Here is the input.
Amino acid sequence: MTEIQEIVAGLQQDEKMISPKYFYDERGSQLFDEITTLPEYYPTETEFGIMRENITEIATLIGPQASLIEYGSGSSRKTRVLLEHLNDQAVYVPVDISEEHLLESARQIRAEFPDLEVLPVVADFTKRFQLPDPPVMPLRNIIYFPGSTIGNFAHAIACELLEVMYHEAGENGAMLIGVDLQKDPSIIERAYNDSAGVTAEFNLNMLRHLNREFGSDFDLDCWKHKAQYNQSEGRVEIRLINEEQQTVNIDGTTIVVKRGEGILTEYSHKYTLEGFAEMAQGAGFKVERVWTDTNNLFSVQYCTRL
Ligand code: AVJ
Here is the structure.
C-alpha cells in the first residue's frame, strides 16, 4: 500500500484513524520540539535528568566503538549527553522520517562532535529500511529508542517493532529505551492538554500536512484537539474532533465525517515495569538495568539479547 492508500484506508475504518507519523512535517517536528519544553510535558525533561544522572554507568554498559542507532531521532537533543560520553570511533546513525529536520540535526551533531561518524538515514522506521555500512566496523550495535516513542504503537505492533530491533541489534548488541510509566492520570492528561495549546496545534497540523502533501481538503477550522487517558488500556488517546458535518476528499475518495466524530491520531501508551519487561522478553530482550527518576514518572531501560 502506498502512503495515501494507507491514509484513505484509515479514514474508512469504523473508528477513523491516521498514523502519528504524519505529525512530523517540518512544522510538526518544530512543534514537537516546542512540546518537549512545556512545563506540563514531563517526559523529556525527566528522561534527560535520568540520562544525566546515570550517564557514566550507561556509557560503561555501552562500551567503546559502538554504533548508536537512534529510531525517531528528531533534534537529537537527549542524544548529546550520550554522544559526549561514548568512547573512541563511535558511530551515530540517526533515523528519522522528517528529512530536513534530520539532516539539519546531523549537520549540527557533526560540527559538535568532529570525531564521530554520523550517518543519518531518512526512513519510516516502522517499515524495513537499510542501515548504512560504517567505514570502520563497530564492536556492537546499540539500538537507542528514547522518548517513549514505543508508546505510539498498539501492543502487537510494539512487539513486532521490538523484534525488528532485536535483529538490528545483532549478536552482542543491546537496546537502550525510554519508557514512560503509568502514574496519576491527572499528571498524564495535563501533559497532553498543555495550557499554551501547543499540543492542540501539533495535532491540528497533521491535517495541514495532509492537505499540502496528499491534496486532501480537510477544513482546518472545524477540528478540535482532544486527549484523554484511558486507564484500563494504560494509554493516552489523542483525537481530532470534528465540530461540523463535512465531507473530505482525498485521492478521489470522499469521506463523510459526522459532527462530533473523531479521528484517532495517536496513542501514547504508559507502562508498568513488569508490563514492559514482559513485552521486551517476548521480543527476545532481557531488561538488564532500569533507571528511574525519584518520582517514578519515567524510566530508561538497558536491554540485552536473551
Ligand atoms: C513522541 C510519541 C513520545 O507520546 O508523548 C507528545 C508524542 N504527542 N504530545 C508522546 C506527543 C503529543 C510523544 N511521543
